[in-house]
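In the current project phase, we have settled on a layout for protein records. One protein thus recorded is set out beneath this paragraph:
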Amino acid sequence: QSVALGVSADGSVVFGYSYNANSDAEAFRWVDGTMTGLGFLPGGETGYSYARGASDDGSVVVGYARNAGSTNEAFRWVDGTMTGLGFLPNAALNYSSALGVSADGSVVVGHGINANRQTEAFRWVDGTMTGLGFLPSFTNSYANAISADGSVVVGYADDSNYNGKAFRWTLETGME
């Protein structure tokens, strides 16, 4: 079984996940008719990895996978190597998921658990994961996509009753 979750800007690279010979869900990248498994985070070889976003040319893939601590960790895959992106600063729980990436693959967005045990949208750049905060009166935020240049993040927030609201985030305005 395989599931495609996205495609590169020109349609030549497809990504998603497929079940391997061990029945583990493994992220894949399909190019020119060949599906290649992207592997797993170090120490999380018997678990899962899911590709959820790719750069415009498909050379950078992001998603989430089980890590050595048996928790969900955002990853970035480049040139055959899957690297964990870590967690929000002072995270109460080690959990993160990457769902989107900029056109050149340098900026990653998703969500993680913060120090207050809330789900918080993040933006990862140059090895640093930064929480994007919340809408007023909302307790959780989830980043789903990012602009080509990495400057605009979109997603949704929910309140304590799980009523959702879309948001747009920029460095200049924050979350609105």
User: Anything to note?
Assistant: The mean pLDDT is 96. Residues 41 and 146 are 24 Å apart (CA to CA). DSSP finds no helices and 16 strands in the chain.
